[in-house]
Amino acid sequence: MTASIVELHGVGKSFRSADGHSRPVLEQVDFHLREGEIVALLGQSGSGKSTMLRIMAGLVPADRGQVRYRGQPMSGPARGISMVFQSFALFPWLTVRQNVELGLEARGVPRAEREAKAEAAIALIGLSGFEGALPRELSGGMRQRVGIARALVTEPEVLLMDEAFSALDVLTGERLREDILDLWDSGQMPTQAMLVVSHNIEEAVMMADRVLIFASDPGRIRCQLSVQLPRPRDPDSADVRALIDEVYALMTAGAARPARVHGITEAAAAPTPLAERLPAADVARMDGLLELLAEPPFEGRADLPQLSEEAGLPDADLLPVAHALALLGLAQLDSGDLQLTALGRRYVDGHHGLRRDLFGQQLLAHVPLIAHIRHRLEQAPSGQMPDKPVLRLLSEQLDDVEADAVLQTAVTWARHGEVFEYDYNTGALRLPTGDEETTR
Ligand SMILES: Nc1ncnc2c1ncn2[C@@H]1O[C@H](COP(=O)(O)OP(=O)(O)OP(=O)(O)O)[C@@H](O)[C@H]1O
């Protein structure tokens, strides 16, 4: 059995929200990162993937369970583990060489050795000739190469990449990913294991020996899939396509209530809370996807990877839309396919008024937060209420930024279904005009 470099045993982490509530973000995470493997971590936004990476790097402590690095309990940042961030995190006033040398400086490495190592890392990642450039003089792809050189210069045994390619355009991201895999497969990297957080299913399947799928609320490993295909992999090969389909199916299983269906037993039995994270799906995109799904060649049923290509939507955008359609009963997710329901067919075929009514009806039936706001507005003599109590309710389980995002999603959906209105200037929620006297 290959040796484990980092081990998580029953790891849990909670954060305290602004109002003092403690929210579990990770629960019972068991994971071993072993020598010689690349592991990809996929999961919904906010499911705790970055938190798990930071715990593995020793940047934040776990509240529960054990974290071990080479068999020893982790205490503080681990020297043999480096991270690469989505945002590049470069110092704008330092040159490429100075940015790369930083990690070595902090460790007291003598100057001559620092320079030699930085030069080697810069050459390895293909940036020779740009040592004296400032970050602003580089393209996004080159900046991320600096971020990777800075992570590699300390010769880490473990490289943790947190959405390292997602801020780059598709081609640049693919090229950088391929270069890293070439370095890894040819043994030129000092690194012995990589963990890659991604929102891109194809990227995960192209890179990893194992794909872990995270569940949300609280974050935990829901399932894993091993990928036993030699690299480099052909994204169009039948084997890769089949695995991509399988990962889509696993990620969308139980999508109507993604956080709960595969959840821990008590959570599955609990009623759906008002403060659930809604998939951040734009209404125009939901309409567009339903229309695309209804037309040839799909005729009501589509393979998600094909739909992603046809709609020009990356996974990070497509999956929330697919989840939202499933939540509202307009489509259903089944084995990695999206299928129009009978109601979804009526919606697509309907004129504007019918679409509005069906959408509103489904919101009230399936989104407890929207039904709750509508009920409160109907009870209020003025047909109005401020958004503050709703935000307070949401922040019992979500942080402030997420609470705001959930309210905004609820508002855009509710406006489309004419369930309620929102005044962006005053933050007032109110019944739609002409609707004050009626109840649905
Ligand atoms: N320092 C912190 N204080 C309070 N809450 C935090 C902190 N760090 C993360 N969180 C919360 O923990 C949850 C998980 O966040 P995390 O960034 O780990 O998720 P993620 O799966 O990486 O999300 P994304 O894919 O959007 O990057 C979120 O609700 C986030 O707001």
Written account of the structure:
Pfam families: AAA_assoc_C, ABC_tran. InterPro entries: AAA+_ATPase, AAA-associated_dom_C, ABC_transporter-like_ATP-bd, ABC_transporter-like_CS, ABC_transporter_ATP-bind, P-loop_NTPase. Keywords: ATP-binding, Cell membrane, Membrane, Nucleotide-binding, Transport. GO terms for molecular function: ATP binding. The protein has 440 residues and is α/β, with parallel strands linked by helices. The protein has two domains: 4-252, Rossmann fold, CATH 3.40.50; 350-430. It contains 16 helices and 16 strands. The chain has helices at residues 49-56, 96-106, 111-124, 140-152, 170-185, 201-207, 238-252, 265-269, 283-294, 304-311, 315-327, 342-349, 352-366, 368-379, 388-394, 400-416; strands spanning 4-16, 22-34, 38-42, 64-69, 72-73, 81-85, 158-162, 193-198, 210-215, 220-226, 301-303, 331-334, 337-340, 384-386, 421-423, 428-430. The protein is globular and about 75 Å long. Residues 256-271 and 436-440 have low confidence and may be disordered. Adenosine-5'-triphosphate is lined by residues 15, 25, 43, 45-51, 399, 402.
